[in-house]
């Protein structure tokens, strides 16, 4: 099992591509989020839409779903491609189509298209996991931002590597150590949203906040979704480090 960070940047990155990953289990490839620049990031690894078996969507920001129209059309019009499987939380599936994708993908000649025209849709229910290849991935609701008075989550992932280690991938999340502390404690490898902008956005865990976590948590925590420009010395601050674009985790 191998996890490759196709990108490690924030939504506005010019240097590091969006924070999308590729999880390879055997010969199956799962794209974890599909941002607007993902086709370039994949191309950098000599990969294309044709190489993607499935895609997971954590939430509906463009750095996570902005490439979905491309993936849908590139696979739909390629006779060598089957529909990719789309794993998406049941609360997001209709909104993904109605508010993000319908304008571009609902325009096929002589065909009324829906989300399942392009994808084999697997809706993930509350507290559910899904199985990709032979690996169970648990969806974990993370607090991303408030829409007025309503929490809008992003759905992170927890799974077990081949070597038994528990991996916790946050996707986009606020700093919420009380909610996360059990997941931090039980996971062996934490791949965490780590904002580095001078001013805290409030919707991402900021590096200065993460520095306050206990030593044993920081030691197993890698940071991504950071801003372009110089980075702090994460290793000196007790973290495993900042993930570099293209970095591979053999799991
Ligand atoms: Zn993001
Ligand atoms: Zn986001």
How are the SSEs placed, and which strands pair?
Blueprint: E1 2-5, E2 21-25, E3 28-32, H1 38-43, E4 54-57, H2 62-65, H3 68-76, E5 85-89, H4 90-105, H5 115-118, E6 120-124, E7 129-132, E8 135-147, E9 150-160, E10 166-169, H6 177-186, E11 189-193, H7 207-210, H8 215-218, E12 221-224, E13 241-242, E14 248-250
Parallel strand pairs: 3-4, 4-5, 5-6, 10-11, 11-12, 12-13
Antiparallel strand pairs: 1-2, 1-14, 2-3, 7-8, 8-9, 9-10
One zinc ion is lined by residues 59, 61, 144, 154, 172.
The CATH topology name reads Metallo-beta-lactamase, Chain A
Instruction: Classify the beta-strand content into a percent band.
Output: 25-35%
Beta strands, count: 14
| Poorly predicted parts | none
Rg over alpha carbons: 18 Å
Number of helices: 8
| Mean pLDDT over the residues | 97
Computed structural class: alpha/beta
What's the number of domains? 1
**Strand order of the main beta sheet, please?**
6-5-4-3-2-1-14
- The CATH homologous superfamily is named Ribonuclease Z/Hydroxyacylglutathione hydrolase-like
**Largest beta-sheet details:** 7 strands, mixed
Morphology? globular
Highest-level CATH class: Alpha Beta
Q: What compounds sit in this structure?
A: zinc ion
Spell the H/E element sequence: EEEHEHHEHHEEEEEHEHHEEE
